[in-house]
Design goal:
By secondary structure, the chain is mainly beta. The chain is built from eleven helices and 71 strands. It has a six-stranded antiparallel β-sheet, with helices on one face. Strands 51, 53, 54, 56, 57 and 58 form a six-stranded mixed β-sheet that branches. It has a six-stranded mixed β-sheet with strand order 60-59-61-65-66-70, with helices on both faces. Helix 10 crosses helix 11.
Amino acid sequence: MIVRTAAAVLAFAFAARAARPSDDPILRIEVGMHTSHVTRIGIDRGGRSLLSASDDKTARLWDVRTGELLRVLRPPIAAGPEGKLYAAALSADGTVAAVAGWTELGSESGHTIYLFESRTGALLRRIGGLPNCVMSLAFSIDGSRLAAGLGSQGIRVFHQADGALLFADEDYKGDVYGLDFDAAGRLATTSYDGAVRLYDEAGRRIAKRVAPHGARPLGVAFSPDGVSLAVGYSDVAAVDVLSAADLQPKFSADTSNVKRPLAIVGWSADGETLAAGGTHPTEGTKRIRLFRSGGRGAPIDVDAASGTVKDIKATPDGGFVFGAADPLLGVLNANGARRVLRDSPLADHRGRALRASQDGKTVAFAFEYDRAPASFSLEERSVRMGPPGPGLAEPLLAAKRVAISDWQSGTHPKSNGQLLPLQPFEVSHALAVATGGDSFLLGTEFGLRHFDSTGKELWQRSQGTVWAVTFAAEGRLAIAAFGDGTIRWFRASDGQELLAFFPHADRVRWVLWTPSGYYDASPGGEDLIGWHVNRGRDREADFFSASRFRAGFYRPDVISRVLGTLDEARALAQANEVGGRKAAPAKLVLPPIVRILSPSNGDAFTTPSLQFRFSARSPGGAPMTAVHARIDGRPAAELRAFEKGAGAQELVLSVALPARDCIVSVFAEAGDAVGEPDTVRLRWVGAATASEATRARGFSPAPSDDPPEMRPKLYVLAVGVSKYADPSYRLDFAAKDARDVVAVLEKQKGRLYSDVITTVLTDEEATRDNVVDKLDWLQKQTTHLDTAILFLAGHGVNDPSTGLYNFLPVAGNPDKRSTLLPGSEIKTTIASIHGKVVVLLDTCHAGNVLNEPKLRGGDSNGFVNELSSAESGIVVFTAAAGRQSSQESTKWGNGAFTKAFVEALSGEADFRKTGRVTINMIDLYVSDRVKQLTSGQQTPVTAKPMVQDFPLAMSP
């Protein structure tokens, strides 16, 4: 029945009084990509911007050309399913993004659709009062109308500009997963009631027909000419093409050898190719099937993803974009060639048993499905690739007192023959039985469950799919590997979460955290988590990376104690007592937020400066005190003359720009709180001869044929201490490493740089005062045009009371702070340098090089993260990850890190013989070479802020 009464219009145009979402901060994973299924995607008419929505409660906008993340859209969320996004649509002009799903929080009377401004991520409006979850969304071609398909409640079509209801049809008996508009304004729908429906522009239903195959038609798509309608199914392997005039069947595409459903369908922009995807084939890589000749041609299968293909959209050039459950976003060109736009950042815990050491402090897992084995040790704080070492036991699957059956991919597992109380459709994936058989863990599609030997449930944690489980610490710890890539430790007695670990799929970055947010992280890893803060039902939520709260929440000492105490509060108390800290828990003080309003990401510029218009506010309540602009990570402009309040302000900042492509970031300060930067990439399209103007404004051009005297200068400060005053601290090659690094850099004089000015402090010269003086020299000499390099080799120590990093000068004593060089002092000095800054850090020699307790456990991770943060903008190369030890050998005559770095700058890193050695090239070469030299015992890490890659040397 078509509903058009005035009462109905008012009911949907004005949502009922809404419940206000909680504004308590919610700790979340944020890895720059979805952490759960990509459920739906949308693309603009020009094929420039891609919208993706996910079960992870975020939507994201991407640059289709580069795969760059443009913006994260954050509706209000809550615990449980609230905020999961099942539907997404992007207006043809790309300006408005609509998302919805399980969004009941926004309105007491029902679910909500959120409409965001794509460019800024601001919430424009919401449409509330919907009686069920929204399963699908679609914009009309002109963007004026928005259609929503509901779970078993039919469809609603709204006026996009104000959310007014235009028409509705509730005559459905199944979920509506398929919606598509054609150029004439007609709307086609599919529903799990088995029918396909067609509506004219006025909302009149002009046809309804039972789908030719299957009871659950899902995908639907008009051909570009509006003549045909393609339909896919979630229950059968069929793709039908219907008449778009009356829904009469025209033909079925060739799916004769397909065993699994092709639920999602889409037409190429020219109508020549029909694409279909889903769970085909049965095993292995899921493929998209292409039918040429308007759908009548012989099928062509193209590898797409390891997970289910969830959505397909056409691109203007005859190809397609697609989203998959991995999560993955990909592109198929007109010839069917595949390009991954964004791959999964998650470790895939399926198919390989989770293993743990007896104390639970070391775990073994896999990064890929049954491949790429790895382990992580809380003692060492680094990821090691390779098979698990000794002492890591597989989970026990049976014991005398308990026998679990039918649990592998089953919905009816049994304990000693008795059914376990699972929810309908809850599939079990993993089992671990406690030694002695007192209890067992079951990992399922919905979470983690703990049962006693009789099958009575002791507790459950509904935190998403669990792929692997095990016990440790004589049954006191329950450990589970989740579908979001995390491994989490729980107190087995009551299910209280103690610790979570996220290893990034790059196999280098990681983060550990407690439920309260105390964390430890690898270089570049601390922003893999952060805090989501709702701002009511009518505003987009805020998000703050963990690095914004480093001072209070970066607590490796707490992390080290949690599994031993089995209690976060006790671990915090012990760490505070040992370190002499205040007993009060750390508090979140929200930093200011900046949003660049213009220029937009990807804009071109031709003038030497631009006016940046931006909004700024301070949700923590402290007045804003400064706004800073960075170009490729380096200081460019500053604003202090504005209304110093906490409320939202629109401001303008003039920024001088180099005559080249660049990245500009803007961030604000409020007291001690420093906000996250908002960033745009800009394209230089001015005259090719603008390098002279660039130099006049103090910026470094790319390497060119300019004469040496016109090129930038390189300033180097190298500090290496081998002969410490305390003989027990001495090293073999730290001083030589410093001299060798300087020697290879001096060869760049007259090549990449007009001059290379160096200062070397080794052994007795490397006093605290001398190093401080030369840091000042480095800061004062380096201009915007130049590059500065700081090399530190020796010992690093962490202050026991603060955990902060210090460099140990030649006469340094770890027990006397006055003899140490604080990392904070180093950072303050070099962060103020206006040119490019690179730090080479090789100060983790304690451990297996010498048996000195005071130097054991030196950890520079926090210091590296401070240096490479957006507000500092420094590129940092570290010799070793976590608490690994840097290795040196008479065979090399250097430390492994220095040997690899010298080789890289000597041309070995110039793999493609381009004539230059860039930061990214050095990163790749040094990482592989050090692992080779040390047989995988040392893993160097590079931490980079958001900057353009740039050359550090020219190869011979």
